[in-house]
Amino acid sequence: MSEAAGEPVWRKWHDDGQPVRLGVSACLLGAEVRFDGGHKRDRYLTDVLGVNVTWLPVCPELEIGLGIPRPTIQLRGGERGDRLVLREGGEDLTDAMRAYADARTAELDALGLDGYVLKKDSPSCGMARVRVHGAPGGMPQRTGVGHFVQALERRMPLLPLEEEGRLNDPPLRERFIEAIFSRNRWRVLVSRGLSRKSLVAFHEAHKMLLLAHDESIYRRLGRLVGGLGQQPDEEIYASYGQLFAEAFQRRATIARHVNVLEHLFGYLKKRVSSVEKREIASAIAEYRAGRVPLIVPISLLRFLVASHDVEYVRGQLYLEPHPRELMLRNHV
């Protein structure tokens, strides 16, 4: 079905029975599981993103038996924080956390995760810049990674990860949400049963979205799909899934977006009027200059595609890769 038939283009590739599924530090949803019995509810996660995803809340410290309230824990030694210990008394929890985290991340992997939102600065869940104690001179260093995050990285190295604080940055938020919706689309495709035909259709719909993120991977994936039949299908499927996930680790820049916008407009040039040409060219130029958000040229393109019934462009997920109400392309 197309958007013209009443369904946004992204809906075609999603399945309500397999929603976008995200792991999350439980305190961010309002669960009173922190060391002091409090929470760190993030209203963007609960009230905005939460409408469009299914959460799998986890609190590693509670789940290894530390209780509520509990002693403060910290990272000590090594650049990333080799040991996880109680601040008072120094009891070492490293082995217990590693054993738990390896088992828990295996469970989450089996459930099918599309991403994970983590609590910043946490010795268990912080994905970067967690304080590491025990350095010469006594000053903690901001180089640590939470031990549960380390297990996530080992088990699912291409899983989109983000901290709640960084999601306040519009470009980082856009990249993360684009990545989780794209990963979900791939997961749905695999669950339905991969075939040469379905892979070709999937790739065609994602072409411009991939080009906006990484042109090199876009070309490599094109060669993979073009070479169907030259090597075992299962090898191609595995390589495609790996590269597809890697593409969304790279942020789509203004320059890459402009390249895609102009590429898409190329399909319209012979159909639109001179006035329409000037309007879309002006919208792209204004976006390039940082005077209007991406949604302006995107909306104009969507209108022209619908008006002139350009089927190929209308099916491009680039035009609408996620729900409009998330307003991810509305920032300058």
Sequence-ordered SSE layout with sheet pairings:
Blueprint: E1 21-25, H1 43-48, E2 54-58, H2 60-63, E3 73-76, E4 83-86, H3 94-111, E5 115-118, E6 130-133, E7 141-144, H4 147-155, E8 161-163, H5 170-192, H6 196-213, H7 215-226, H8 233-247, H9 254-266, H10 274-288, H11 295-308, H12 311-314
Parallel strand pairs: 1-2, 1-5, 3-6, 5-8
Antiparallel strand pairs: 3-4, 6-7
Widest sheet: strand ordering: 2-1-5-8
Order of helices and strands: EHEHEEHEEEHEHHHHHHHH
Structural class: alpha/beta
Distance between the termini: 32 Å
Largest sheet: 4 strands, parallel
Number of helices: 12
What is the total domain count? 2
Give a short synopsis of this structure.
The chain has 332 residues and is an alpha/beta fold.
Walkthrough of the structure:
By secondary structure, this protein is of the alpha/beta class. The chain folds into 2 domains: about 5-165, no CATH class; about 170-330, no CATH class. It is about 45% helix and about 10% strand. It is built from 12 helices and 8 strands. It has helices at about 45-50, 60-65, 95-110, 145-155, 170-190, 195-215, 215-225, 235-245, 255-265, 275-290, 295-310, 310-315, and strands at about 20-25, 55-60, 75, 85, 115-120, 130-135, 140-145, 160-165. A 4-stranded parallel beta sheet has the order 2-1-5-8. Strands 4-3-6-7 form a 4-stranded mixed beta sheet, with no helix packed on it. Helix 3 packs across helix 4, helix 6 packs antiparallel against helix 7 and helix 6 (about 195-215) runs parallel beside helix 8. The longest helix is centred in the middle third of the chain and has 23 residues, at about 170-190. It is elongated and about 75 Å long. It starts with 20 loop residues before the first strand and ends in an 18-residue tail after the last helix. Residues about 1-5 have low confidence and may be disordered.
